[in-house]
Write a structure and sequence with these properties.
Blueprint: H1 2-52, H2 59-63, E1 68-71, E2 77-81, E3 85-86, H3 96-106, H4 118-131, H5 141-150, H6 160-176, H7 179-189, E4 196-197, H8 199-207, H9 216-224, H10 238-254, H11 260-267, H12 281-287, H13 289-302, E5 313-316, H14 320-331, E6 344-351, E7 357-361, H15 374-377, H16 387-399, E8 406-409, E9 412-413, E10 420-421, E11 430-433, H17 434-439, H18 443-453, H19 455-464, H20 490-501, E12 505-506, E13 512-516, E14 522-524, E15 530-531, H21 535-551, E16 565-570, E17 588-594, E18 598-605, H22 623-636, E19 650-656, E20 674-680, E21 706-710, E22 715-719, E23 732-738, E24 741-745, E25 749-753, E26 758-768, E27 771-782, E28 792-794, E29 809-811, E30 842-844, H23 848-852
Parallel strand pairs: 1-5, 3-4
Antiparallel strand pairs: 1-2, 5-13, 6-7, 6-18, 8-11, 9-10, 12-15, 13-14, 16-17, 17-18, 19-20, 21-22, 22-25, 23-24, 23-26, 25-29, 26-27, 28-30
Helix pairs in contact: 1-6, 3-9, 3-10, 5-6, 5-7, 9-10, 10-11, 14-22, 16-18, 16-19, 16-21
């Protein structure tokens, strides 16, 4: 018994030991399983955490942004613009060879996986263990699409979080879209160098044909490029592109998508076979650069469309033939000769009947794209091209001026009574019609006309033709110097003159007529014309501007057989630097002209006109007219250009030349003394003159002009006889000029205190009912004296002149009916003699501080032609 019990006890003691060893292995196994489960759960949790913060993936992001097509007036695409230059292709537009090429090189198991591919991932892991991290990717084509749509493709951004989100979005994408849809998204999304996105656009860019017409070799090239677009660019890296294309062909053969014979035949095709030559595109882009810039600005300003991303179709008014000829005219010597390559130009051409901008020239010798557009952004005075807009047209419109309206061209000042205005030739032509005044671009008649119309009425007229003048201090309104200048861009000027051409309707100039969205919705951007003036004003102004080209300052623009009208303009240098240049030089030159079809405005000058050799000589000042002539001749050669038809609101009437007011000629008047002028209906002369006609120059000079100097009083006494007129009711006044200072009076004497030492020149003109007499003149010698000699200075800078004590002064008698200063802001003034119709104003020092220091901010350059 004892032995049996001991045996049983021994057995019993051994069993627990055996059972303990089993529990240990179980624990180890369970621990490993537990750890694995925990790791899996943690991985799932981390994946879920990362996935929860994944960005939304919309169809818009899958498609990407789209380039916009820009069409000319004939519907031809002349530019595509956008951050991603792409074109969507789908369905039958995509050849099977391209699909097979993409799948063979990128994702052979594409049709079998669910968005992520465990087998591909496993293979990538092994490859990375052997070759290092990132030696091979495990991304499916679906994952690549996600990465292109919402994530960065930079290697530094390929984090675990990004990979988790990428996988999650790929799973979602596969549940939402079919495999064919995903493949199409990818084909339309990928980048293929040269700012080309999507294989559809790449087919056009590289081979110049639709995607469904490319060869097997070309399909393989495009399919292989997305992995490294710039490296596989066939233009810049043909060897690398060839190797990559052949790799794709090998993959297609291995994937049994093509035969070995098809592979070899495709490999035999040269890599540059069928490639489009783009070497001249940069030059072509410069041709349309100014116009394209205006198109972009208009779409941005007038719509909510983003032309760079929304893939819209923009219909413009561009006349490509006119644009090309304008570019050639500005950038070659084939049509117009230029003094150097630095001289610049700004040109605008609009359709007078619609306001459509047909061509723009923004510069010469341009190299940078979307550079400064001088046609739309130029801020320089237009000189005398302002006169029809600010002076004469408002006078016809508001005061029923006729083209015969008489005005006296004689020494004159602005309303301050002291600041002189001069003509380009420093001479005066006496009584003349406004037709003669504008034909010869006289400044004094222009100012007098503006003063008669009034600044408010003139400004109102300007706004109706799209011109809003701003003064240097921001004041929106006119000052008297705007009679002969103001800052207006070429495109504004061409549109304003177009209102004369079409009979009085102003169209805001526009380059874009409509924008078509991707859903085919249209945005109309055409300009709706508004009546800016009476048809009588437009016709009469045009009739006078015809003479500017026929026999005035604009003869360089004359085109034989073409009915046209126009106006010249030049500006002058600031007095501070005027001595640096010849007296005939100018910093700016303009010409604005039109027909019944087109209005063209041209500016020529230098960006830095103050630099050495950057002044325009008299020959260069004719460049705007020559450019206008070349462009207008070109665009008018194949179309009918009608002459203007006189409206019923205008009548023609013979007038006795020199009569004032206008009178019909009597039966005995020679034809040489008869002029035919235009009148607003109902205002033509009804009375007949009994005279034979006098030209303004035939009135005799005043008599009895004497002058003497009294040393004790240091004064010159001047007197003359009363002027005898044949007309009993004639109004006589006198214009006295002493050393360039002018005073108008009805008295018969003047005293000049503290005169200048040396010879003092004195001239006298009688004004008889507005008709100017010949000039009487004399001089008086003033001995050298200690008194400070008088000095005169031209005011033409933007800064108010410094004050100075007077040393010479003309003092009228107490009974003199001298003009007092107007409340009108002081005028802009300018130096004379710089060009054929620029102006000059002279101010004695004594007037500077009193009259200009508080209002000198209104002074700046407006000099003219």
């Amino acid at each position: 018994m004892t032995s049996d019990n001991e045996e049983m006890s021994r057995v019993a003691n051994k069993k627990p030991k055996k059972g303990g060893k089993m529990k240990l292995w179980k624990k180890i196994l369970l621990s490993l399983i537990g750890i694995g489960v925990l790791v899996l759960l943690a991985g799932i949790g981390l994946f879920a955490y990362y996935a929860s913060s994944a960005p939304n993936l919309t169809e818009k992001e899958l498609n990407g942004s789209f380039s916009s097509k820009i069409l000319d007036s004939k519907g031809n695409v002349f530019k595509e613009i956008g951050g991603e230059n792409r074109e969507i292709v789908e369905g039958e537009q995509i050849p099977q060879s391209l699909k097979d090429a993409v799948i063979s090189i990128e994702d052979r198991r594409f049709y079998k996986h669910i968005g992520i591919d465990p087998i591909r991932i496993g293979g990538a892991v092994l490859a990375n263990l052997k070759g290092g991290f990132a030696s091979q990717g495990g991304s499916t084509l679906t994952q690549q699409l996600v990465k292109l749509s919402v994530f960065s493709t930079k290697s530094s951004d390929q984090t675990l979080k990004r990979k988790a989100q990428e996988a999650w979005l790929s799973l979602k994408l596969e549940r939402k879209y079919s495999k064919e849809q995903i493949l199409e998204f990818y084909i339309n999304k990928v980048y293929l160098a040269n700012n080309v996105y999507g294989v559809g656009k790449a087919s056009q860019y590289y081979f110049g044909k639709p995607l469904n017409e490319i060869s097997l070799s070309q399909a393989a090239l495009l399919a292989g490029m997305p992995q490294a677009p710039n490296s596989y660019n066939p233009y810049t890296n043909p060897d690398e592109a060839l190797a990559r294309r052949n790799m794709v062909l090998d993959a297609m053969a291995s994937n049994e998508k093509i035969t070995a014979a098809e592979r070899d035949a495709a490999k035999a095709e040269p890599i540059n076979s069928g490639l489009v030559d783009h070497t001249e595109e940069s030059a072509d882009n410069l041709v349309i650069d100014a116009y394209l810039k205006e198109v972009i600005e208009e779409v941005s300003k007038k719509t909510d469309v983003d032309i760079y991303t929304d893939g819209v179709t923009v219909h413009t008014n561009l006349d490509m033939d006119a644009q090309q000829h304008l570019y050639d005219t500005l950038n070659t010597e084939n049509y117009v000769k230029y003094p150097d390559d630095q001289i610049q130009a700004g040109v605008s051409m609009v359709d007078v009947n619609t306001g459509q901008i047909k061509a723009l020239g923004g510069s010469r010798k341009q190299t940078a794209q979307l550079g400064l557009n001088r046609a739309t952004d130029l801020q320089r005075s237009i000189g005398s091209t302002m006169k029809p807009l600010a002076d004469y047209a408002p006078a016809i419109e508001n005061l029923n001026y006729s083209t015969y309206q008489q005005v006296v061209d004689a020494p004159y000042t602005y309303s301050d009574g002291k600041t002189q205005i001069k003509n380009y030739d420093k001479a005066y032509k006496g009584q003349m019609s406004i037709r003669e005044a504008i034909t010869d671009s006289r400044n004094i008649p222009a100012l007098k006309t503006l003063q008669t119309v009034g600044l408010d009425k003139s400004n109102e007229f300007l706004k109706k033709v799209g011109i809003n003048i701003k003064q240097p201090d921001g004041y929106e309104g006119l000052v008297e110097s705007n009679a002969i200048g103001g800052d207006v861009t070429p495109v504004q000027l061409s549109a304003s003159y177009a209102a004369f051409a079409n009979g009085g309707t102003y169209y805001q100039p526009y380059a874009v007529n409509k924008v078509v969205l991707r859903n085919n919705q249209e945005i109309d951007l055409t300009s709706k014309g508004e009546t800016a003036m009476k048809d009588s004003t437009a016709y009469m102004m045009t009739d006078m501007l015809k003479d500017v080209i026929k026999k005035g300052t604009g003869t360089a623009a004359e085109i034989p057989g073409l009915a046209q009208a126009g106006k010249t303009g030049t500006t002058n240098y600031d007095d501070k630097i005027a001595d640096k240049f010849p007296s005939t030089s100018s910093p700016d030159a303009w010409f604005s002209g039109y027909t019944t079809n087109y209005s063209i405005s041209v500016w020529v000058g230098y960006d830095d006109p103050n630099a050495d050799n950057h002044d325009l000589n008299p020959n260069s000042q004719k460049l705007p007219a020559r450019i206008y002539k070349e462009l207008m001749t070109h665009v008018s050669k194949d179309i009918e250009t009608k002459d203007w038809k006189k409206p019923a609101t205008v009548v023609s009437s013979p007038v006795l030349n020199g009569s004032n007011p206008a009178a019909k000629p009597g039966p005995n008047v020679p034809s040489s003394n008869i002029v035919t002028e235009l009148f607003v209906k109902g205002t033509a002369p009804t009375n007949t003159s009994n005279g034979t006609g006098n030209t303004p120059e035939t009135l005799p000079a005043p008599t009895g002009l004497t002058a003497s100097y009294n040393k004790e009083t240091d004064a010159i006494s001047i007197s003359w006889d009363s002027y005898k007129s044949s007309s009993k009711n004639a109004k006589v006044s006198y214009l006295l000029n002493v050393n360039g200072q002018t005073y108008e009076t009805s008295d018969l004497s003047y005293t000049v205190q503290k005169p200048t030492s040396g010879t003092n020149s004195i001239s006298l003109v009688a004004s008889v009912s507005g008709q100017r007499s010949a000039t009487a003149s004399t001089s008086v010698q003033v001995d050298s004296k200690e008194a400070e000699s008088s000095s005169e200075s031209v005011i033409d800078s933007t800064e108010p002149p410094a004050s100075s004590e007077a040393s010479s002064e003309i003092v009228p008698p107490e009974s003199s009916s001298s003009e007092t200063s107007s409340s009108t802001p002081p005028p802009d003034t300018s130096s004379g003699g710089n060009g054929s119709d620029s102006s000059s104003t002279v101010v004695p020092r004594s007037t500077r501080s009193k009259n200009f220091s508080s209002l000198g901010k209104f002074l700046w350059i407006f000099n003219l032609k």
